[in-house]
Amino acid sequence: MPAAALRPKPLPTQSTAKRPVPLDLPYAPVAKRPLPAGLPREWYVTHNRRLKAMRLAIALLDSGVYLPDQARNARIRSTAELIGVHPPSDATCRLVRALLHRHR
């Protein structure tokens, strides 16, 4: 009998579950580091928007939203409230959908 047949079958993960797994409470954030000084203000705005969009995209993926069509602005904003992030702007919502589309 091959060795692979003797290993126990792994538990289902979010990606293999039959229905979405409820979103856990957010985990402790990583330690923040200071941003580099001397860059234009627009760089900081864009950087923070991308970080927020990534956090929201990860939370949506964890809750079972895999397609950009499933991520309406209301859904993204309710997820932001759930994980403790300020409500995103329309531009941030578009970026979240772009991240979901790109990594699909």
Radius of gyration using CA atoms only? 18 Å
Roughly how many Å apart are the termini?
A: 37 Å
Number of strands: 0
| Oligomeric status | single chain
* Chain-averaged pLDDT: 82
Which segments are poorly predicted (pLDDT under 50) over 5 or more consecutive residues?
Answer: none
CA-based shape: extended
Helix and strand succession? Answer: HHHH
Q: Specify the number of helices.
A: 4
> Largest sheet, if any?
none
Helix content: 40-55%
What class, by secondary structure content? mainly alpha
User: Which percent range describes the beta-strand content?
Assistant: under 5%
Explain what the structure shows:
Residues 1-20 are annotated as: Disordered. The longest helix is centred in the middle third of the chain and has 22 residues, at 41-62. The protein has a domain at 38-104. It contains four helices and no strands. The mean pLDDT is 82. The N and C termini lie far apart (37 Å). With 104 residues, it is mainly α.
